[in-house]
Amino acid sequence: MKILVVSDVEERLLYDCFKKERVEGVELIIACGDLRAGYLDFLMTMVNVPMLYVLGNHDDVLVKNPPLGAISLEDKIIKFKGYKIAGLGGCIRYNDRTICMNTETEMKWRCLKLSAKATLKGGVDIFVSHAPARGYGDLEDFPHRGFICFNNLLNRIKPQYMFHGHVHTNYHRSIKISYEHPSGATIMNCCGYKIIDLPDRE
């Protein structure tokens, strides 16, 4: 199964210069936050496949006006073509806004609830977030710190992949695109876009 994962940056190659061959074979779009509904609508229309999404910290408008036809992954586990996909959006709260931001404690409770759902559903294959896990692709400035509780969540639910955004790859030269987590998960920063090719399942 081929997945188009997008986050944070509207890619010119997918928007102004869209070509069908760039997304040939894509069966699902996953959006990791901070993208306009218009951009997401465009991708769904042009690629013509389902979209799952979580909210970024700048997605207040999507709470009231979500992209038409897209399915929110917030605090859910959705099965698609044999893969169980879970999502938790938002980032660490760094100001007095309460929409699309959580304290570490608030996100910890969300993680515990998602972990319980994962146990009932027999695990998770892909975990989707906006923010990274602490120590795996985050930065030291407070707005771009990852959640500590995401590390605990990964250790409990043991997904194959974690897809996130939030940390733009041009923020710092030391930013890596991919990390291997002790849980066994491959963590990928999907700022801009990535095409992920996974084995087909029944």
What is the topology?
Layout: E1 2-7, E2 26-31, H1 37-47, E3 51-53, H2 60-64, E4 71-72, E5 76-80, E6 83-88, E7 91-92, E8 101-102, H3 104-121, E9 126-129, H4 148-157, E10 161-164, E11 178-180, E12 186-189, E13 192-197
Parallel strand pairs: 1-2, 2-3, 3-4, 6-9, 7-8, 9-10, 10-12
Antiparallel strand pairs: 1-13, 5-6, 11-12
Helix pairs in contact: 3-4
| C-alpha geometry | globular
> Which percent bin holds the helix content?
10-25%
User: What's the arrangement of strands in the largest beta sheet?
Assistant: 5-6-9-10-12-11
Overall SS class: alpha/beta
The major sheet is characterized as: 6 strands, mixed
Keywords:
single chain; alpha/beta; about 20% helix; 5-stranded mixed beta sheet; 6-stranded mixed beta sheet; about 200 residues
How would you explain this protein's 3D organization?
- With about 200 residues, this protein is an alpha/beta fold.
- It contains four helices and 13 strands.
- The strands form three sheets. The protein has a six-stranded mixed sheet, covered by helices on one side. It has a five-stranded mixed sheet with strand order 4-3-2-1-13, with helices on one face.
- Helix 4 (about 150-155) links the parallel strand 9 and strand 10 (about 160-165).
- Helix 3 runs parallel beside helix 4.
- The model has no long low-confidence stretch (mean pLDDT about 95).
Short description:
The chain has 202 residues and is α/β, with parallel strands linked by helices.
